[in-house]
From TrEMBL:
Keywords: Membrane, Transmembrane, Transmembrane helix. It is a multi-pass membrane protein. Coiled coil: none annotated. Residues 341-514 form the Cation-transporting P-type ATPase C-terminal domain. GO terms for cellular component: membrane. Its main location: membrane. This is Cation-transporting P-type ATPase C-terminal domain-containing protein. It comes from Cichlidogyrus casuarinus. It is found in: Membrane. The keyword Membrane applies.
Amino acid sequence: VGCLCNNAVLKDDAVTGQPTEGALLVLATKANIADPRNIHRRMEELPFSSDTKIMSVTCTPRHVKDNVDLDHHGHPICVFVKGSPDSIIQRSLYYRGPAMIHKNLHSALSDGPILPLNEAIREALMLEAQNMGQNGLRVLALAEGSSIDRLILLGLVGLVDPPRPGVDAAIETIFAAGVNVIMITGDAKETACTIAGRLGLFQAHNTAMSGFELDHMDVDTLSREIRDTTVFYRTTPKHKCKIVKALQKHGLVVAMTGDGVNDAVAVKSADVGVAMGQGGTDVCKEAADIVLVNNDFACILAAMEEGKAIFHNIRNFVRFQLSTSISALCLIALSTILKMPSPLNPMQILYINILMDGPPAQSLGLEPPDKEVIRQPPRRVRESILNVRVFVSILLSSAVIVSGTFWVFYNEMSADGQVTPRDTTMSFTCFVLFDIFNALSCRSSTRSVFSIGLFTNRIFIITVLISLLGQLLVIYAPPLQSIFQTERISALDLLQLVLISSTVFIVNEIQKFLIYSPKTRHLRTSFLGRSTTSHNPILKLVSQFIPKQRFQKNRYRSDFSV
């Protein structure tokens, strides 16, 4: 029956079609059962339906001489059915009893007596199916008969469908990132909960919900009941849409995976639709935003990691560019307000904007994903790239750059009371070095450069070296000296400028340590505890850009669900 009610093809040890049907063909091959499709011609097929949970085919003999099995009423057996145990057991009126085991297994099954199927046997069969499901087996029931209403139950088949290697680790990492994973399956409760438990999806405080329960809930009710539900079993594609809407109504960003035609609506309605590349229908792929070519769930983790990395790289790029631009603007504005000459001439400003800012800024966009970025909590949907914390960091860096550069310029100009090429060279070089140290610190907004690695972004290192070489040429190459109005300075002067300009790097690293380091968590917690009860407006303002700690006691409190 498993071979007849089957659309898969086994050729050269390779299966084409559904894995479940392919497993039945492999089982028949290992049991030395001849393919019954060679002696039966399929006349009609009732495809598997999520509502009926069965698949049936109607067959006739290919040749007149072929023997046809008869039921106990003498009617020819021509309908072969497979599906969920509860659906087929309830439809069956009889079952085939045990037979003597012959060399031909197919003959042994056919020789068993046909016996009435009473309620006691039905309960025993359902209990056996539940026991198989608790062992993580996907259970199918097989039956045959003269019609769909007069089925003879043949038995139960258990299939092992283990998760791909690495899925449990991927789910654990996704949980750590504040993302909740929900399993939606058509399997029985026992099978679904067992597999989910092995993957860490189903814990003692979690609940499972059936498709029958979903049918009796509206979206509003489901959005309230779904809080601790991580497993949905015996579901249909229409249930997926309801689950997506309920999660979205809860204010979450939802990603939905699917592969069939019926999944397309749910995949399309989700915020992020994910389709399976292997075995997935074209309709589902067109509706999806992402297609997993190898059907590997871990690829979703990689996509999340890449997405977070891109967002953080854009934020670091903006942070660096704005801090440099604001510093240059404030430096010129400050000298104008104080009625002093400009520390930078127009050619030097153009050089900074085009050659010194451009390459390092572009290389910040190529920063590889930080290994800790995936564990950071999801950001709010409408969170801006330039939030309060980033803006404060930009102002802090700009203040250090402007103060240091202006001090160097004022100190040099005070020596003779007038602006000389040496004065502009010192201030120009100081500003460029400030830029380089600032770019180094902007590689990460939360972690120290030493923890992510100085040489993990080779493009950044190359662009920084090119920028340093260009600055040395501007200082020491006579043709460029005349263009940029610079002059040669000593090695001691360069060392002094390096020490001064490194302050922006030191300040930024201290800021990241105080705000983001786990070692200072207790200080942040106590500070925020006082600030929330205090009426001091300054403390309330500062508490807005110090990140509060997120605890994953309730994993559902996330901004993203799969």
